[in-house]
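Exercise (ungraded).
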Amino acid sequence: MNRRQFAAITSGLIVTFTTGCALPVIPKRPKPEYADGLSWIRFAEGRYTLFIPRVEMGQNILTALKQIACEELTIEWHLLNVKIASTADIVRVRATVGSESIKDFALPLAQACATLREAILMGLTQKRLEAKALPVSELRSFKANGKFVGRTVVIEQGNAIVTGQPLYVGDVRRKGMVYGRVLRANASPELESTLVSFNEAAAKAVPGFVSIVRSRLLLLANSEGIGIVASTPGALDRIELALVPVWKTVGAFNQIEIDRSIDIDRRFDLSPSLMKKVHSDSVDKNSQWDVDLRFDIPLAAHAPIQPRASVAEFSNDGVLQIWVGTQDVFYQRDVISKRMGIDEASIIVHGTRVGGAFGGKTICTVELEAAVLAKEAQMPVKVQWTRAQEFQFGFHRPPSSHRVRVSLSEGRLNTWWHGFSSSHILFTNAIVPAWLQKITNLVGDDGVARGASLLYNAKVRRTEFDLVRIPIFTGPWRGLGAGANGLVIESAIDECALFAKTDPIEFRLQHLDDPRLIRVLKRVAVTSQWGFKAAAEALPNATIIRGRGVACGVYKGMSYVAVVADVEMLKESGAIRVTKIWCVHDCGIVINPDQVKAQCEGNLVWGISMVFSDLLPVGKSKVAASTFGDSPIPLFAEIPPMEIDLIDAGEPPSGAGETAIVAAGAAIANAIRAATGIRVQRFPIKASSFGRQVA
Amino acid sequence: MKLQINGVVAEVPTGWQNETLLSVLREQIGLVGTKYGCGEGLCGACTVLIDGVAQRSCLLEVRTLASKAITTIEGLANGGKLHSVQQAWIDEAVPQCGYCQAGQIMSTVALLKVIRKPTDAQIDEALAGNLCRCGTHQRIRCAVRRVAEIV
């Protein structure tokens, strides 16, 4: 067997192999084409049905795509029935990731709808249609002043949400359904763990016991699993207690070892040149640096309020129906088909509305558990992960460690040198084994590199990074690397502006060429009345000190954002909070302004979270968090009023789901710097006592 | 044993009497609007009203609730007419993923019973136990204010 026939190309990794041995299932990423659009839209008996080719997880994409379809079809809102697609409904589409649902799916959807509209006008009723690749200029849904596009409409499924109708995977109930859970060693699944013993008799004596499932298919990475099945959810807890499984785990690690392996200064000690280059100018490492900053951003959970769940049911003819709440229904089918040896045609994966995903629900975990338990128990099974399982067996935002060194001359950036290390994102250790990562490392990791490219003009630019496998699973998290990289770069640029004694907006404008980035920056200066209140207010005898910060960024070269934040600190307690945020956002043509604003609001809250909350502790060879108390997310009192301003100057529509996160955290950190004189370098900070900690 | 849920009496079979209210509501009765988020009373997704007071159904043993009036998200609307809080949630386009919103709505209904026109600080305090990861806080505040103004 030869596992190592690989060809690396610049745009990605092509993996070829002679046998399908221990290789992970890699998500397929077909680009949606016009012809695909026809499998999304159907017309029968006077009614239209739109099978949404994206996963709905809070971006209200059902609403936006319905707006496009109704506009293009030129029909009333109520005539179009929107359905969340199963794998049986549409041709394969790629995962809902990367803020590309409008950017890449609006056009083929509009083209398919335009074709359908014209066919119906011509009196055709019984024909499979070939989609016509109409140019944007001939489409009704890409024009300003539409009936639906560009307007605020009542969100799809809104009524069902506020009345508690079944929408999510955990809401699925099947006749004769029982409840399952897979127990594992309380250790990171990166470590090999095996079951040594368990008390089967005691488990069987618990009322509601249905069965114990032992299957090698329950292996999650290197973590053996034992399944328990019960007639009620509460019985699972009692069976787990009675079963007393004893585990043997090989290896051990703690937080300090992870911190040490990521530590950027240590990486530079190990090698003067890091593994991958974003900008590859050579720098004189003995220069006098005008700004020299170290930043550390820790492991963090996605923390969706919905922990993952799945329901699986085999019919008598062996067809597996499985309900999932993930970002890629087709990937679930691929993995389950391969792992369980079931023909793809005998698996139907039903998508459901997802209760928050943020990049975390992109792999197959609970779904395989449900399928295996359903097969072994021969009953429909629901598996609902606990919050503790969600922390322990999901993957997380990687920790990253950054060193930024800058020299300036005459107030302008001269040399910019940013080195950082991070664990993997796209080539996540949750599915890519260590031996394969050695090969993927040759390609790099575009997720880690995202947002690392310097937007500002500098004479010499060097940005380089190391990829470090850590024994906790890490992968895509809202914005991927762009969240952390934006926080670092925009903090450092702020420090450069201070060094240059130049207003931070002016300093940025002096170093930018991109007209769309310049436009959002100039606009946020207006909406926030920047010049008016830019300086920290040092009122005499004040009990409160205030500060204002700005940051900006571009996400994936397609969407632009500038953010201004105000903070205040109570002198006595040292408590710091954000009091107001302004955001200007440009994602081209806006399909649904209100929901683009909602995405901005969400991203700004994530910025607050990055500065004040996001931290997932590690200890005793595992994620040392099992509740929201161990890894908190922001509360209402931490969320200030936010003003969002959208720019739509007719550029092609891009994405809004992860844009503002590239600037939100840094705007707050820069406001803290303005208020207190302190540059936050280790995130997150403790809001309730920040001033005292640093005093 | 019997429960009184949304004004209707529901029989809880023997095998379900050792369960939490949350699991009986969702799995035995089929009122799935109340959500599981953490099982520890820390996220608020499972909030219901017990005799009008917001409580975490994931922490309540169903056998202790025989004489209580239980209200869930499904019991707020009056026939086809949405409760003013539900309507405000739609008018302000509050939900993103929507998963926490039943809990947010139930906590708001309980708040507005006690304080008719809450200040922002009172809203923040009343909803401090209801987490939202999508970042709908600002819209929730707007929706609460909207109800307070019209009721």
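Further reading is listed at the end of the chapter. For now, observe: The mean pLDDT of chain B is 97. The longest strand of chain B covers residues 2-5.
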